[in-house]
Amino acid sequence: MDKLIQITSGRGPLECQWVVAKVLKVFLEEAKDNKIDYEIIHRENGDENLTLKSVTLLLKGKELNEFLKIWLGSICWTGKSTFRKLHKRSNWFIGIFKLDGLEKINFNEKDIQFQTTRSQGSGGQNVNKVNTAVRATHLPTGQSVFVQDSRSQLDNKKLSITRLKEKVLEQNIIQLQKRMQETWNNHLQVQRGSPIRTFSGTDFKKNYQEKSFKKQRNVLKNELKNYKNDLN
Description:
Blueprint: E1 2-8, H1 14-33, E2 37-45, E3 52-60, H2 64-68, E4 73-78, E5 91-98, E6 112-117, H3 125-129, E7 133-138, E8 143-147, H4 153-191, E9 197-200, E10 205-206, H5 209-231
Parallel strand pairs: 4-9
Antiparallel strand pairs: 1-3, 1-5, 2-3, 4-5, 6-7, 7-8, 9-10
């Protein structure tokens, strides 16, 4: 089972970009604990070091749906800005979404059309007289690359496949990101009041539901104790 996931700050400020980077670390740690394989498909760096505007992940695992139940939605970090000390805001939101259309990033070498030609520019007579350069075109998308790095046509062909795959996958990711960006604002407004997970502090402490229940239980125990004292 494969899922394409995006962790994004949307149009949030620098603080939200910082939260994306911190959430990514926790997300990958928990994915590893749950024996879920992951691959970072694309990342967009933030405006400062150690920040990310968004990151797109390909996840693989048997228990993937259960794992994502505690992640998909809005994520809230509660704390004072690490970039603007006097800023009054204390709740910062980012989103984690599943990207539909995973099949669109499939890449099949059978869909590539190859053309050979003579290498261009300097490189010696042997290079320029033999058809060693390769132009590879991905027919479904029209994306193409031209490779003349090696004097070997076979090596250039292998390299063209690698570069063309990267180009096709990157274009598909960009299209998916544009679609997510269009829906981000509406989704965020719906989810802002009820984040699926909350973190706090500069150490990014996890706020688990169990802790809030324990606190509530202690309150009830104290109330019961006071009630018994009143009876006496």
